[in-house]
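Lab notebook, design round three. We kept the backbone fixed and only want residue identities now. Task for the bench partner: fill in a sequence for the structure below.
Input structure tokens:
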């Protein structure tokens, strides 16, 4: 089975030097990425979140300001993103479409929603020195920052940006450029993760407090429905295509008993089915929360009239 073969070889890359003829000259040490352009922001966010969480909890008490559940979600998501970008999966993703798809799905539908759920803005602000925090807060509230943020954090904008990134980077010319140019490849990863993080942040914490919480969950269901549709169409196009979109992407396909076209089709199935299932699972979560949320009108106690 190609899928089992893929998993077996990936585990082998993690544990021992590769022996297949296509990767015989590659040692396990070189399979781990140490790109500072990806590692630096990753570590900065992780360190800042840790410092900010400790300061916030010392000031407000453990679990206040940011909950233990949110901290657990952040570090789980951070670890998923770190492994996706630095493990041998990243190296393999440059040479196998299926691995590249797995890497991007880990970034967009596992790491991003977990880190978005953590709502890192408070810990990140508390990671700054006390003398700087008021100025940082005022800067974030200035129109030059607040207005663009209001525009991109609208549910329609966030959904559109996430969809645009997904479709644009799977256009053959851009995808091939990312494989040939390291800077463009970095931009591809960053845009996938950043737009996904924005998308999930809006669904979890976007506009809507008090009475409109139920409305926000309803909007989240709609955004996920649209995303399932267009990502499923893209996955189906990759799966059902009779030609290879990016010939250079399947350089190691033969090592997994796949042709480049079969490698592309397997990648398309991964986008079409597992990715769609995760989006649908999230939609069910928001639907459940929408159903159990009592409308504000029904919370008003009935007034008894004296007979």
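Proposed sequence:
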């Amino acid at each position: 089975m190609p899928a089992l073969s893929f998993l077996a070889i990936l585990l082998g890359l993690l544990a021992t030097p590769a022996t297949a003829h296509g990767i015989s000259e590659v040692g396990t040490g070189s399979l781990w990425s140490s790109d500072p352009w990806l590692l630096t922001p990753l570590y900065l966010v992780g360190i800042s979140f840790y410092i900010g969480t400790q300061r916030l909890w010392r000031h407000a008490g453990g679990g206040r300001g940011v909950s233990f559940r949110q901290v657990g979600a952040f570090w789980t998501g951070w670890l998923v993103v770190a492994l996706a970008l630095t493990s041998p999966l990243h190296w393999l993703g440059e040479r196998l479409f299926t691995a590249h798809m797995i890497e991007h799905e880990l970034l967009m539908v596992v790491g991003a929603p977990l880190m978005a759920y953590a709502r890192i803005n408070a810990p990140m602000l508390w990671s700054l020195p006390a003398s700087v925090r008021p100025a940082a807060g005022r800067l974030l509230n200035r129109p030059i920052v607040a207005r663009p943020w209001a525009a991109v954090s609208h549910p329609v904008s966030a959904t559109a940006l996430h969809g645009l990134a997904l479709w644009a980077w799977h256009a053959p010319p851009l995808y091939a450029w990312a494989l040939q140019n390291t800077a463009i490849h970095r931009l591809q990863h960053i845009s996938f993760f950043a737009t996904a993080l924005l998308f999930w942040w809006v669904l979890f914490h976007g506009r809507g407090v008090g009475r409109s919480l139920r409305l926000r969950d309803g909007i989240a269901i709609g955004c996920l429905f649209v995303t399932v549709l267009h990502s499923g169409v893209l996955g189906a196009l990759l799966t059902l295509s009779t030609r290879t979109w990016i010939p250079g992407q399947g350089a190691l396909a033969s090592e997994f008993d796949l042709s480049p076209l079969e490698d592309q089709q397997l990648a398309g199935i991964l986008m079409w089915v597992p990715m769609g299932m995760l989006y649908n699972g999230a939609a069910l979560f928001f639907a459940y929360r929408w159903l159990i949320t009592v409308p504000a009108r029904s919370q008003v106690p009935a007034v008894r009239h004296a007979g």
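Keep this in mind before ordering anything: Residues 1 and 257 are 9 Å apart (CA to CA).
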